[in-house]
Amino acid sequence: MFTAQDWPIACNMLSFGSTTPDGRPIGEAPASVWAAQMREVRELGFDYIDPTDGWVPLATLSDERVREFQKVLAEEGLAISSISMTRNSVVDVERGEANLAMAHRLIDLAPEFGASVVNTGFMQAVTPAQEKALWFWLAEGHRDDPALRPLAVERIRELGEHARTNGIQISLEMYEDTYVGTADDAVAFVTDVNHPAVGLNPDIGNLIRLHRPMPGFMEMFEKVLPYANFWHIKNYLRDEDPQTGTYTSAPMPLKTGIINYRTVIRRALELGYSGPFCCEHYGSDSLGVCAENREYITQVLTSALR
Question: 198, 170 in Cβ contact below 8 A?
């Protein structure tokens, strides 16, 4: 069990995007680009990062470039507690098998970096409408095909077995309209996978931002927290007008959004949560908000673990 002071709380590097200003993929950029971005995060007080494949896709790097990445990471004084796959579903109709291979590659890389979790899910590439929207979650996106659910269960169980042999965990990120798109669906899916190395990423933030009816956040957390082994943690303003059926939402720091994370984190600890946290935020100074959120989580943990 971690203490409040050494609990892994990472910054998701998704804030930097996937390309350099001149349009090159960051994964193909010189190590100096990685170093500059890592340094920016380190200067905000982070000890850990999550190198999501929406930033640097570690699974596609050559062994030489992986070693280069490890060198830069050490030089910048950072560590990796988790690695997230973004929009690379293992049951994507066109790229599912390739994405499955990438997940296996990440499971092999994770122990080399000291990461305890590989986070994946079933979200897929944003649609043209989502790219045009102010916030991508306000436009219609991918919906999972129920017919592929048995294959999804099979492939996640396969990843879980590989993870178990490597001494790490697989976490499934909750995301709307996927096999883990509601609290009930997420619990049903992880129960069907039925593998000790597979748990849930209770990223309820992905749901409460939606402009549609939604259960109360505590109702959802009570269902999924017993299965949680990793946590993309973020918060949103949410308002509902029952007279007009209007919904509004916007990204907010952890302590000011609709989810009371002081209550939720304490409840998670009561239920035995011991996984890493990964701070995320969209819009504004996302890195600065993530740094504030890290301090908030540490304070909540300090109070809860006394």
Answer: yes
